[in-house]
Design a protein that fits this description.
Oligomer: single chain
Radius of gyration: 26 Å
Number of domains: 2
Number of helices: 23
Helix content: 55-70%
Number of strands: 4
Shape: globular
């Protein structure tokens, strides 16, 4: 019976991970330009653009594309579709689901190796999954989630003696593709650094003999760290990849505006709140130590990151979920009631089933995951109503010429459909390339700001003249619409009328 329950809960867990991931694209603005960039790279013989080719405002800025290999993989997945736009993106979403299964599965596997309990391992995997809830998009970070989970698995297995330490030399080899898939490769450096710091602390504080350095893992971990650093430089841009995060995090405008860089809203991140309460409570209850020094360092670091930026919550889950599993197992051992202990695995299994059922079936955010899954299996790759599909079709069909202004939230799809073949976009959300300068311009124009807030600013109409904009794609609620209607140089294009007078500029309003 126990074996049957274990198989059942494992299969149910895998299905829950797929349910979270197999959903049509609802609002993600990035997947479009990632797949489009992969298409451009592939069709140009894997030659990487030296400068930005998708937006005209930033076309003179060097493009250090740290995600180029992931984009090629995404486009390769897209081509496996049925030849339609929806079919191609359904394959990209499927790839995302497989990466998420690997990441959460490795978390569960590590927990099982440490506790021997399948139900507790599944609960740990669910914790990692639920903490990823707000960031499961078809984007390159999914590669980093899977690789980071595997990285920690190897480090922990070696530290506990379950595998020989020479297996850690796999890490520098893995670092080479990771540094070309996504900028999250630095997570691997941080993880090895935590283990090295713990070994150095052991030598400095605990060891008395002069042979202490040789009897610990300091030398080997230091060598692996150096090898990983060297391997990370095997990419088209060298050390420049280490500079990219600073461009975003040092820009106060971006940090203030980008939702993913904000602190978590606990109304939407219940799993994170539960994790914090569990760790605090277990600190008072648990009698024995179950957290190692490197794990503690990693949990503190990523908990800090998670409290500051919601985009880092999946990393919190990958680091902390196996530790929570060990704490849970230790708490179970301390239960004094002998009659209750034999039933704990069944109770843990029931808890996992209830969590999975609630997670995939609740309508807390409008549609349940089951509803979204049904749309995916019905053939939808994305929600057409949420993207400027009609606008892109209208622009191409009517032969619009000149430069386009667009809002950032529309940029991803417009890149997919228009850039660079028909029209480059005004700007988009690749802030690691060009920072927040063009986002500021976009905000001034779409909000119709006619005062200069900062030195060097221009008003909305001055910026349109400065960038020589010929037509505009904006939502109907954009404040600039009213100003455009009053300006004699602009006429509304609509979806049935194309102004023939070349002296008149067109603008399109989305309802």
């Amino acid at each position: 019976m126990r074996q049957f329950l274990n198989i059942f809960i494992i299969l149910l867990f895998i299905c829950s991970v797929f349910s979270f991931a197999l959903t049509p694209i609802r609002s993600d603005n990035d997947v479009w330009w990632h797949v489009k960039t992969g298409k451009i790279i592939t069709e140009n013989g894997f030659s990487l653009p030296k400068y930005d080719i998708l937006a005209y405002t930033s076309e003179s800025i060097p493009w250090h594309n740290h995600e180029w290999l992931a984009q090629v993989v995404f486009y390769s997945a897209f081509k496996l579709g049925d030849g339609t736009e929806h079919g191609g993106f359904r394959m990209v979403i499927l790839l995302t689901a497989l990466l998420l299964v690997v990441a959460c599965g490795l978390v569960a596997a590590l927990t099982w190796r440490e506790t021997g309990s399948v139900p507790i391992a599944i609960l740990a995997g669910l914790l990692a999954l639920l903490l990823s809830r707000r960031t499961i998009y078809p984007r390159p970070p999914l590669f980093s989630y899977a690789l980071f989970a595997g990285w920690l698995f190897l480090l922990r297995e070696a530290a506990s003696g379950r595998i020989k330490r020479r297996w850690l030399w796999v890490l520098p080899v893995v670092m080479i593709p990771w540094a070309n898939l996504h900028g999250g490769f630095i997570l691997g450096i941080i993880a090895i650094g935590a283990y090295l710091a713990a070994d150095i602390w052991k030598v400095l504080v605990q060891w008395r003999s002069t042979t202490g350095w040789r009897e610990t893992n300091v030398v080997m971990n230091a060598a692996i760290l150096v090898a990983c650093l060297a391997a990370s430089l095997i990419n088209p841009y060298g050390y420049n990849l280490y500079l990219l995060p600073g461009r975003v995090m040092s820009d106060t405008l971006l940090v203030r505006i980008i939702p993913e860089l904000h602190s978590p809203d606990f109304f939407y991140t219940l799993a994170f709140e539960a994790l914090l309460l569990f760790l605090v409570a277990s600190g008072f209850i648990l009698k024995k130590k179950v957290v190692t020094l490197p794990e503690g360092l990693l949990i503190i670091f990523f908990m800090h990151q998670g409290l500051q930026h919601v985009r880092h919550l999946p990393l919190v889950g990958i680091v902390s979920a196996p530790v929570c599993g060990r704490i849970f197992a230790a708490l179970a051992e301390e239960i004094p009631h002998a009659r209750l202990k034999p039933h704990l695995p069944s109770l843990f299994t029931l808890a996992a089933v209830l969590i999975i059922g609630w997670s995939v079936a609740n309508h807390r955010e409008g549609e349940s995951f089951i509803d979204r899954n049904l749309r995916f299996f019905a053939g939808e790759g994305y929600y057409e109503a949420n993207f400027p599909v009609a606008e892109a079709n209208f622009i191409v069909a009517n032969g619009f010429t000149g430069r386009m202004f667009n809002q950032i939230n529309e940029a991803g799809f417009l890149i997919w459909r228009l850039s660079p073949e028909y029209h480059k976009v005004f700007t988009d959300d690749r802030y690691d390339i060009f920072g927040g300068t063009f986002m500021r311009h976009e905000q001034i124009i779409q909000n119709g700001i006619d005062r200069k807030v900062a030195p060097g600013d221009r008003t909305w109409d001055e910026l349109l003249d400065y960038w020589r904009v010929n037509f505009i794609v904006v939502t109907a609620d954009a404040p600039v619409n009213e100003l455009l209607e009053k300006d004699g140089r602009w006429e509304r294009g609509g979806f049935s009328v194309r102004r023939a007078d070349p002296r008149l500029m067109d603008f399109i309003m989305r309802s």
